[in-house]
């Protein structure tokens, strides 16, 4: 068995309220974090933003044993939050949330990581317009699939791209058609990135998780091993 080198934490919306209450709620956040959460008008989205910040603290504390209230998150020059105080583990983390689910991935040894969670299968409007941003080999693969399978694959391609770009720290500023994934239906998921020195894909590990019939989650981790992902779903 490979050694675990990345940990994915999942928090369904149904468990968010009790999780927020038992971890300390908004009082645990610094003023800037509270302001960002309160800036969102829609209560469900506000709750997810708060839950995400608390989930990061929970995940980091689970890895290190530090108190939840000890963490601060200054941003780097590219806007990425990094955990303080630093530890010998050199932890990195990334967050994502969508309707129904919040996710946090944590890696050690300074390995870059990204996570993206989305509803799946993709909705009709996404099925219609997202493939134009995909690489040629991805569009070719989609064209061979039955109509019933295509929306699920489109959602999977999208979360893989998002997770990878979040790990790189570029967000969606890259041309998505220069990034291609294969192996979604079995075996190891492989990356082909024409914008990076080759073979860029050999330095990355990708995982696709379907935590519910309505969600898909992708994890991207640098210099990680196949089979080294631990997933924990929090409940009431």
Automatic annotation (TrEMBL):
Q: Which N-terminal residues, if any, form the signal peptide? A: none
Domain (4'-phosphopantetheinyl transferase N-terminal): residue spans on this chain: 28-103
Keywords assigned by UniProt, alphabetized? Transferase
**Any single GO BP term:** lysine biosynthetic process via aminoadipic acid
A GO CC annotation given for this chain: cytosol
4'-phosphopantetheinyl transferase domain ranges (all copies): 113-220
Q: Which Gene3D superfamilies match?
A: 4'-phosphopantetheinyl transferase domain
| UniProt cross-references to Pfam families, sorted A to Z | AASDHPPT_N, ACPS
GO function terms (MF aspect): holo-[acyl-carrier-protein] synthase activity; magnesium ion binding
Disordered as annotated region, ranges:
67-87
Q: Which family does it belong to?
A: Belongs to the P-Pant transferase superfamily. Gsp/Sfp/HetI/AcpT family.
Q: Known PANTHER family for this protein? A: 4'-PHOSPHOPANTETHEINYL TRANSFERASE SUPERFAMILY-RELATED, PHOSPHOPANTETHEINE TRANSFERASE
What is the name of the protein in this document? 4'-phosphopantetheinyl transferase superfamily protein
